[in-house]
Design goal:
Blueprint: H1 2-17, H2 19-22, H3 30-33, E1 34-42, E2 45-52, E3 56-59, E4 64-66, E5 72-78, E6 83-87, E7 92-97, E8 100-109, E9 113-120, E10 122-124, E11 133-140
Antiparallel strand pairs: 1-2, 2-8, 3-7, 3-10, 4-9, 5-8, 6-7, 9-11
């Protein structure tokens, strides 16, 4: 696991260094490459839809979901089966999503609502990886989503 993280960090650093070779104008800002929208589907359950621009992808293993409040937690995360490919930068098989992925996250806690922190990380096919993207949502434990 540690070796895998080291390879990923090294690959990300090399990819970031290669931005000047690729040309920054050719790359989308992360908010455009990886658009996210959320909707509450039940009390304490939210679906986050990531729309991924052509030529970009999100790593399956780089998604994480958490709650900062001590009285709440993520109960479950449901994700579809990913695609798998050989990543040249990592020299390893990686699971990824392209075009779109919808993630269903269930949270539990006390009170009216829970803050949900969603993180994802992806790359452009040209070999440039982005830092993790963090989005925060307020999920109602009783009704509709807030914020």
């Amino acid at each position: 696991m540690i070796a895998s993280k080291r390879r990923f960090v090294l690959a990300a650093a090399l990819a970031a260094f290669s931005v000047s070779a690729v040309g920054q104008a050719a790359l989308l800002p992360p908010e455009e490459a990886f658009r996210a929208s959320a909707r509450q589907v039940a009390p304490g359950v939210v679906e986050i839809a990531y729309t991924i621009a052509p030529g970009y992808y999100l790593y399956r293993e780089r998604f994480s979901f958490s709650t900062p409040e001590p009285t709440s937690r993520v109960e479950s995360v449901a994700m579809p089966d990913p695609r798998v490919k050989h990543d040249r930068a990592l020299d390893a098989q990686v699971a990824y999503y392209a075009q779109q992925v919808v993630v269903r996250v269930a949270v539990v806690g006390t009170g009216e609502s829970v803050q949900l922190i969603a993180k994802a990380q992806g790359c452009a096919e040209v070999g440039v990886c982005y830092p993790p993207l963090t989005r925060t949502y307020r999920v109602s434990l009783r009704g509709g989503m807030k914020g």
